[in-house]
Design goal:
The protein has 141 residues and is mainly beta. The chain is 14% helix and 54% strand. Strands 1-2-3-4-5-6-7-8 form an eight-stranded antiparallel β-barrel.
């Protein structure tokens, strides 16, 4: 095997091993501090009095590293703009690094699933409850 091919294979193997080492091992502290947020999508059903239409929000999600969260954001839902504060709690699956946020005030019972980056400086988000709200986005530190 030529030297460049060996070096390329070694780099690939090292990258693969590092990626595997970063999977799992997450804790509540994996989400800690404030994150700027941007989520967008659509309400697709007419359930519980919600009219179908576009949804976008920008704000700040603050995790305390111990399972509590506060969200302050501005929402544009179907052309109506409002500010809101949501509070809740979150859990983290240590083997998959999947975090589940359950809001207790502001939007009680609503849930979102997050996957934080290995560095903890970024997370992807999708709203999972209610199912008729198809919204996803990102959080950035």
């Amino acid at each position: 095997m030529a030297l460049p091919a060996v070096l390329a294979f070694g780099a690939l193997l090292t990258t693969s091993q590092n990626a595997n080492a970063q999977v799992g091992g997450c804790t509540l502290a994996s989400l800690n501090g404030s994150y700027a947020s941007h989520l967008f999508g659509e309400v697709i059903g007419n359930s519980a009095g919600y009219t179908p239409g576009p949804f976008a929000t920008s704000g700040r999600w603050t995790f305390d590293g111990a399972g509590n969260i506060t969200v302050n954001d501005t929402v544009n839902y179907n052309g109506s703009v409002s500010n809101r504060t949501l509070t809740g709690n979150y859990t983290v699956d240590s083997s998959t690094c999947r975090a589940v946020v359950t809001f207790t005030t502001g939007a009680p019972g609503n849930q979102a699933t997050l996957y934080p980056s290995p560095s903890g400086n970024f997370a992807t988000v999708v709203v999972t409850n209610p199912a008729f709200v198809v919204v996803n986005g990102q959080l950035y530190k």
